[in-house]
Amino acid sequence: MAPKNAFYAQSGGVTAVINASACGIIETARKHPDKIGKVYAGRNGIIGALTEDLIDTSLEDDVAIAALRSTPSGAFGSCRYKLKGLDQNRREYERLLEVFAAHDIGYFFYNGGGDSADTCLKVSQLSETMGYPIQAIHVPKTVDNDLPITDNCPGFGSVAKYIAVSTLEASFDVASMAKTSTKVFVLEVMGRHAGWIAAAGGLASTDDQPLPILTLFPEIAFDERAFLARVKDMVETHGFCSVVVSEGVRNADGQFLADQGLKDAFGHAQLGGVAPVIANIVKNGLGYKYHWGVADYLQRAARHIASRTDVDQAYAMGRTAVEFAIAGRNSVMPTIERISDAPYEWRIGCAPLDQVANVEKMMPRSFITADGFGITDECRRYLLPLIEGEDYPPFKNGLPCYVRLKNLAVERKLKENFEI
Predict the structure, then answer these.
(1) What's the rounded Cα separation, in Å, for the pair 16 and 301?
(2) Is-contact 201 163, C-beta < 8 A?
(3) Distance CA 361, CA 380 (A)
(4) Whether residue 234 is found in the same domain as residue 278
(5) Which amino acids are annotated catalytic?
(6) What span, in angstroms and rounded, lies between the C-alpha atoms of 369 and 375?
(7) What counts of helices (H) and strands (E) characterise the chain?
(8) What are phi and psi of 418, to 5 degrees?
């Protein structure tokens, strides 16, 4: 039988290393032309499959594909589009299979977080009932680090490195100005329900060079009185204080401090703006001069300071996804299994998608100090290996050299258009 083609799509918020996974998939598939024909990518994620807007990656040369490894964001475009349940909108899944059949696609690689794992699982299940077999492999990606089973998620290590470095450098800045100016700096980071990214800010303070850093986690209900007492103590002791706050911090009633009353495309609360909320609490409660900043897209786009560990693992997840498919595996996700902290060693595992989809991994309470404002040594041992190593992109004239693919479209074969 002639080899089947593959479909690859990027989902949700992009990262500094998601293209490294794409690189791993495409390069590995090209090494097995007897098993996999062409790799088609969805333009703007899964929407590209629904609208039959496919990109032919075979038209990109090996040099361009290799350059994906050091290029941030989503090379083929991503989207926040959650397919409904099979019972709610079976037509969406049927459409996917129609497009796959029209383009002789037998492999589905979906690169994303928990919602994309759920989509991958449903496609696999429906393909069996409809008699069109698809090997669906989920490729893990999320800066939030909240996928279960896998030790960590590609994308997180580089964000953690960026936040740790930014917290360190900002703390030095505040310390130099604290006598007559700013005494408190508040940095807002991503993390709707899990405080992994915020925890990374705590790495900036070490035994050799301790810094006054407070961390606000989604897992710990915000206590204004306790928070102000800690800020006051740090400023009186050190002259200044840095606060790293997750966008998902909640009060004792479970309400997001940054809830704008809006929803994103996945139905999640649209967050943002917790830094000024915390800064105003400091101003009103203590009268200290403050500054605040929001890492926002910068934290997930910063390929120039990506973690080498993260890049290697992202590529390995893409490569392994293809190897799993060739071996006949279906409805699974490659995982990262930690063997040891020091020296850091890891290996690749495998998780069934029905144990991954729609499951969030929060920070263990043992990773957070008893007072709720810092990270423990156990957390530090977990985080440090994930930010280790540098993997700088090539530079020209002082700027990183990133690739922009041609992204040429595949000819459409279906007459019916599909409205999103």
Answers:
(1) 5
(2) yes
(3) 18
(4) yes
(5) 144
(6) 5
(7) 12, 13
(8) -125, 125
